Amino acid sequence: MSEITAHHGLLTDIDLHVDDTGGAGRPVVLIHGWPLSGESWAHQVPALEEAGYRVVSYDRRGFGRSDKPRTGYDYDTFSDDLEAVLAALDLRDATLVGFSMGGGEVARYLTRHGSDRVHSVVFAAAVPPYLAKTDDNPEGPLDEETADGMKQGLKDDEKAFYHQFTTDFFSVDGTLAVSEADRAEAERLANQADHHAALKAMEAFATTDFRDDLPNVTVPTLVIHGDSDATVPFEGSGARTHAAIPGSELHVVAGAPHGVNVSHVEEFNRVLLDFLQR
């Protein structure tokens, strides 16, 4: 457990909280979803460590145990923060696993920093290629009314919003697909987020277009997504990402909600480990 400083201009050093299992294994870097933290990978870290990998997770700026500055909630900065983590730990031949909004970091990282440190990548229930439904992106699953409703809900009553959001996050057709304890843990992590950071990061994942980033994903790629994901629907995200990356592998988890790494732990971990071992 350590703090890594991400540098962005004068007087703007930001400390990011990092958990690192250490060891000589090939590194796997876990990038969490909104509005959680690196602790949301609790069901993956032990399995990856037991399989011999060095597992690194970190809290995005503004979330969890990391610093909560007023600025830097855009994907260029998020990907630069990821580079700061990789450089500080001198990680090479790494697999980057981006869950939900974390998939945006993966895509933008390869555009801004290349693949010198990267062995392979995983898009898990991830937001690319472009969530917003616009005239030039009619397949986008997030319409303006829904996006505005989310923003207003977070502004009006943060705690109530996170309770409902984490419920939907883990539900299929209105039925919770995880234990109440797992849902409550996600809500606890969400409540660690800075309010301003959560709003700005929501805007970033809702409006950032990654279509021009995906051609830069030239390393081995796995796309894993639940077919019952109501938060980031598969057809508008994972299916399109898979189609946009030649040679990518696709695994669709039947009956899985957005929080597929918690609801279907055994299948998610098996597919991830199979991919890592190739």
Explain this structure.
With 278 residues, the chain is α/β, with parallel strands linked by helices. It is 37% helix and 18% strand. The protein is built from ten helices and ten strands. It has helices at residues 45-50, 75-88, 102-113, 144-156, 158-169, 180-190, 195-207, 238-244, 260-263, 265-276, and strands at 2-6, 14-20, 27-31, 54-58, 94-99, 118-124, 171-172, 175-176, 221-226, 249-253. Strands 1-2-4-3-5-6-9-10 form an eight-stranded mixed sheet, sandwiched between helices. The protein has a two-stranded antiparallel ribbon with strand order 7-8. A hairpin with a 7-residue loop joins strand 1 and strand 2 (14-20). Helix 2 packs across helix 3 (102-113), helix 4 (144-156) crosses helix 5 (158-169) and helix 4 packs antiparallel against helix 7 (195-207). The longest helix is centred in the first third of the chain and has 14 residues, at 75-88. 47% of the residues are buried.
Structural class, please? alpha/beta
Helix fraction, binned, reads 25-40%
SSE order, one letter for each helix or strand: EEEHEHEHEHHEEHHEHEHH
Average pLDDT for all residues: 96
Global morphology: globular
Tell me the major beta sheet: 8 strands, mixed
Strand order of the largest sheet: 1-2-4-3-5-6-9-10
Q: Termini, distance in Å?
A: 29 Å
Strand content: 15-25%
Q: What is the total tally of β strands?
A: 10
Count of runs of 4 or more consecutive helical residues: 10
Low-pLDDT segments: none
Rg, nearest Å = 17 Å
